Fold this protein.
Amino acid sequence: MLLYLGRRMIAGLVLFIVSSLITFLLLSMSFDNIIATRLGPGATPEQIADMAARLGMDRPVLIQYLDWLGGLFRGDMGTSFFTGADVMSQLPQRISVTLSVVLPALTLSAIVAVLLGVWAASRGGWVDKVCQGFSLIGNLIPNLLVAIGLVMLFAIELGWLPATGFVPMEQDFGGWLRSITIPVITIFIGGAANIANQVRGTMIDELRKDYIRTLRTRGVSPRAILLKHALRNAAGPAVTVLGLTFITMFGGALIIEQVFALHGFGTFAFTAATSGDYTVMLGVMSVGIGLTVGMNLLVDIVNGWLNPKARVY
Amino acid sequence: MRTHLRKGRTAAAAVAATAMLTLAACGGDNGNGGDADPTPDDTNGAIETPVTGNGDTPATSTGGGGGVLNLAMNQDPGSFNIVDSGGNALIITAAIYDTLVMNGPDAHPVPAAAESWEFSADGLALTMTLRDDLSWTDGVQVTTTDVVATLEMLSSTPGINQGHFTSVTGFEAIDELTFQVNFSEPDVTFLWALANAPGVIGRADMLDAPNAGTNPMGSGPFILNEGETIPGAMWVLDRRPDHWNAAAFDFDQVRIHMMPDPTAAVNALRSGQIDWTSVPAADVASVTEAGFEITQVLGTAQTVLRIFDRDGDLIPALGDVRVRQAINYALDREGFVMAMTGGLGTPTNQMILPSTDVYLPELANMYAFDLDRAHELMAEAGFADGFEVTMPSIPWFAHTDPLITSALGELGIRINWEAIPPAEVGTAVMSGRFPMAIFVEGDPTLPTHVFSGNYSPDGVFNPFGSTDPVLTPLVEQFMATLDTAARAEVGREVNRFVIENAWDAPILINMQMFANREGIVYHGTPVEQLRIELFTVAG
């Protein structure tokens, strides 16, 4: 297991270096434009060159990249090109806002999806139809429409929940809960629809297998057959989908953050990209790769625990 | 004739550049109706009430006690470093810092931190006197040492504000409260600049502080509440009761919420989370029905089809005045107003507002929509089949691209749109690669900035450096004339030339809509939309 983890960490590191180098090279092609944007339309080539020299942006790109990489491993991602604020100190705050919405949504999605999927697979009939309908509608309806509808009803018409904004949990737990409710419901629907369909499908396959028939003939209770045996074997693909759903939710958080004015990771990344704040973009990229690699590793570990035959370590 | 002079930028052109950068935030910026008074109207200096307001209901304040004001803004101030400040979210910067002057209700500069000023007879020296009750938040008095140090830093450091100082040769502190600015040539735009970011006063011993961009020290009417502020999400400002103009502000605390999405801002208004926001045209009806007050401010910006290549260097057709006139005739401006703004705007064929003293009402109907006339002119010029042209597709104006394609397509003008990344808009559009561009320009209230930025050979918005033996001297004369009436006369000649020779194709005057809850009054004008003193308690 440790050897496996080590191999995965090294592979993740290689992936990170390759991705970050490509990103840096692409960004470096716009360095002059980024400086010109900061200096204003009246900037002369001499002023641009002067600022580039002061910021070390006139050095060979590889040297600049290695300099940045070294800083990263020292915990220094540099400062925002436009605000001067430290990138490393801003990221945790931004990530926590996004995770405050994504993690509850993912948890809720998993719970509802498993319940619905298992129930649909074991009962069939109208329950199965409800599950399929929910999966179809949940995948078809855009998050944005759901968000707008929920805001109109619960925030504007009823006044039960805030339309925008985020209250940190440590500041006011009740306020935090209210501020994340509509965003969480918005992204939960799509996530649950996706996972429920997966759970339903794999459960149906499992329940048709011979060993399930054998367990029934041996008098094992239906509940134990369902939850202890079938679900455990069917969980693998669902866990994989759960991992992918987390990455999708996190990466797609921008739209939700814009609609609800959340100062999360998505908004942070978008603002950096549109303004050309390359230091922040590199920090955002680092986090993105780290999350993806980490989540994939976690999925492999959980799948290996659920089904020893599926272990890759 | 095309020149490639890039040796400097006029101050007015830099101001126009600053206005361009504010477009996405507020659709316009401050402006002067055409005057830079050599002396203030009131030299006594003491200002007890806000000096801005709309023409009908001048703002009057109660001097505090109004509680908390919640506003929505769509652009973050970024850095509070004075070199980089301005443009985006000036409302915050202007609250934390004092500016030397302010824009008055009639768009003329009025005293602020500087209680009086005087230009020399030749316009080459400006002497200003500070109020004696200016203080930093720690109580230390603001002196000319701070002002001169700030101005020197702004003029010598590359940044968006440096261009305002191209005609400045030096600064001199005469005594603790009096300083002088020396010019190489008269600069009628300089006083306007001092009402904005270039006129901000920074503390001399903190200008280079490493945290200057994030922890500002100002002498303004508000202090940044760093404990409650969440950078990028909400900026909290606490009123300073000891500020010299404290009586001008009704609210004890202002919370500025960053909401880039207009729908989010409108939802926040309707749910009671904020008190004021700008409103997209599509939401005006629903917001009005919900009982909010709407303020319409006409003239915060103008939509213009810029024709840069007037000498025909890239597109020979554009070098012919008949082709440029044909383009003007082909624009159904009334149709554009309906299509782009739902009727919330006014068609125009001039680069400045009707309220300015250089507007020509007798030419208002020149280029009334007439496709037949447009075709005639194109045929006379030898371009009956039109031509091909590449134009930049700017992200925040991209919704106008199909309208322009359709309008110019009637003349056979085939447009290739080139998408421009948001971070590169300024440099790309002004790079000289594009013969034409559709633009929403701020500052139509200020002829000095419009004419110098667009029609000076080295104007920032004249990327091809177009000159004309008649127009260029006129523009130079306009910029050098200090007397208001004389300058207006020259300005009208400039405007007449630009219209009759179709140097551009203005389309419409934009209207910006703002909504606020009952209980507060918003006094926005085409000159000023984003100052905290514009918000007062009702009744």
Summary: The interface with chain B takes residues 30, 33-34, 36-45, 47, 50-51, 82-85, 90, 93-94, 148, 151, 155-156, 159, 162-166, 258-261, 263, 267-268, 271, 273-276 of chain A (CB under 8 Å). The CA atoms of residues 223 and 229 of chain A lie 9 Å apart. The two ends of chain A are 5 Å apart (CA to CA). Chain A is about 80% helix and 0% strand.
